[in-house]
């Protein structure tokens, strides 16, 4: 391997010698980039290149015409995209700049230098492959290299701001006014496009208002951005207020490798079936344990895990930042033998009536009859003159089973591992990869963008885990520590 040389030069003012030039073999062209990176201690570029070299690029290559100017290799293009996102460069122009000046990126991409437009066309040309088979195969490579499985998974979701502007939100009334004004104006291609956007947005907003009104809430003030109607106005993380956003969700294993991911406009629970299906298609079997936070204490999630006999560890949200005005239903204990509830004051609520279900509502049973008038805790429980009443739905039986399961010390200890497994994933996506706001509009484009971030994150985990193994082996040789003792250090 070529040794480094340097040039020293004396200052004309102080006669002190300074290093004027270093790594002259690189400047002179006699040292290869591979040797230079090795001497600099750069390892991540080599690991990324090795993982990418393992992939099957046939699905990408089949999408190109057999004639015409030769396109850039899909292997090199993905090297730029994933290595760049790993380093926190998310925009196409930043990736274009990186491919020209970053030595690690030059090594990974074999020196190709596409412009930002070529990178953008590549992403959309291969959207189906990237979000489908390629994510699966890349994740399998990372799992093999990390020697980790999926017997225990942890799930979580977050809120990422959408690309559209918060300041262009419109209510249903504002949409109608703008549409009327455009209809009265002379027809142009631009006005027709805008009218179509407004009509689509009005329909989406109408459905959201209906869903909100079904829950007994006012939906008249809901707003939407016509340029990105799929984005939903919701509360952002880190105290940033409200804005249009999406909710990406992930399942990760104990080595913090993403094995399933997707994006929904506003829900974390509705995508659980899709996440479990992705994981099954990846590994061929379902996890033994699934760790989720209180936001997933939902009937659909419980039903989905029981369907595949997955042990769910998910506690109900009993530690709210803002305490409830009255006791929640979860504090009332149901007794199946007596067919009654026991309230926090140890009073009994017996069955009073049964309400049959309909096409739009579920059937339920009503429990009440406790002596609430003389109860000292009445103000914390109910303001109703007839006393507190509890509605029991058919799915409450499964909820009670999960509450009982989570009451054991063993279950609490297992669930306590969830934070250290899954929450650092979103910290890395935000803090290192710069995923604070999506750059593309529309749910399908957002899913593609998040898939790229997930693949880049998995590559970074492969780098971290492989380097840790190398360090552990070296540390063991130096200190004489056995391999099994390294984890306890």
From TrEMBL:
Domain Transposase DDE: residue ranges: 342-461
Domain Transposase InsH N-terminal positions: 48-123
Pfam family, one: DUF772
Region (Disordered): 204-230
Biased composition (Basic and acidic residues): 204-220
Listed InterPro entries: Tnp_DDE_dom (IPR025668), Transposase_InsH_N (IPR008490)
Protein name: Transposase
């Amino acid at each position: 391997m070529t040794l480094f040389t340097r040039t020293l030069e004396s200052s004309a003012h102080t006669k002190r010698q300074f290093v004027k030039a270093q790594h002259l073999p690189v400047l002179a062209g006699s040292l290869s980039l591979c040797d230079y990176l090795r001497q600099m201690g750069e390892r991540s570029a080599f690991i990324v290149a090795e993982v990418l070299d393992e992939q099957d690029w046939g699905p990408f290559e089949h999408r190109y015409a057999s004639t015409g100017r030769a396109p850039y290799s899909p292997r090199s293009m993905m090297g730029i995209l994933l290595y760049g996102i790993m380093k926190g460069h998310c925009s196409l122009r930043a990736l274009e700049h990186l491919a020209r000046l970053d030595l690690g990126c030059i090594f990974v991409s074999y020196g190709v230098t596409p412009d930002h437009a070529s990178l953008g066309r590549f992403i959309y040309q291969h959207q189906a492959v990237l979000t489908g088979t390629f994510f699966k195969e890349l994740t399998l490579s990372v799992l093999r290299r990390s020697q980790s499985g999926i017997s225990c998974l942890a799930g979580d979701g977050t809120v990422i701001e959408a690309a559209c502007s918060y300041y262009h939100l419109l209510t249903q009334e504002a949409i109608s006014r703008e549409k009327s004004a455009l209809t009265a104006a002379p027809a142009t291609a631009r006005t027709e496009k805008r009218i179509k956007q407004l009509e689509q947005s009005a329909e989406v907003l109408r459905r959201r208002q209906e869903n909100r009104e079904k829950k007994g809430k006012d939906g008249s003030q809901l707003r939407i951005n016509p340029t990105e109607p799929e984005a939903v106005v919701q509360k952002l993380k880190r105290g940033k207020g409200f804005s249009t956003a999406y909710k990406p969700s992930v399942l990760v294993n104990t080595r913090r490798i993403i094995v399933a991911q997707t994006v929904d406009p506003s829900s974390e629970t509705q995508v659980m079936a899709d996440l479990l299906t992705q994981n099954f298609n990846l590994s061929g079997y379902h996890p033994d344990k699934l760790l989720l936070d209180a936001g997933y204490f939902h009937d659909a999630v419980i039903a989905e895990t029981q369907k595949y006999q997955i042990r769910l560890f998910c506690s109900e949200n009993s530690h709210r930042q803002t305490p409830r005005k009255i006791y929640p239903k979860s504090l009332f204990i149901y007794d199946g033998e007596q067919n009654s509830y026991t309230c926090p004051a140890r009073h009994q609520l017996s069955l009073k009536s049964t309400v049959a279900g309909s096409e739009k509502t579920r059937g339920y049973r009503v429990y009440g009859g406790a002596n609430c008038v003389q109860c000292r805790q009445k103000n914390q429980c109910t303001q109703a003159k007839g006393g507190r009443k509890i509605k029991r739905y058919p799915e409450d039986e499964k909820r009670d089973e999960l509450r009982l399961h989570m009451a054991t010390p063993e279950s609490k200890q297992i669930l306590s591992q969830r934070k250290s497994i899954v929450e650092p994933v979103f910290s890395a996506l935000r803090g290192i990869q710069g995923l604070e706001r999506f750059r593309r509009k529309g749910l399908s484009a957002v899913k593609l963008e998040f898939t790229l971030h997930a693949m880049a994150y998995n590559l970074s985990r492969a780098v971290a885990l492989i380097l840790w193994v190398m360090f552990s082996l070296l540390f063991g040789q130096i200190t004489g520590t056995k391999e099994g003792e390294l984890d306890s250090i």
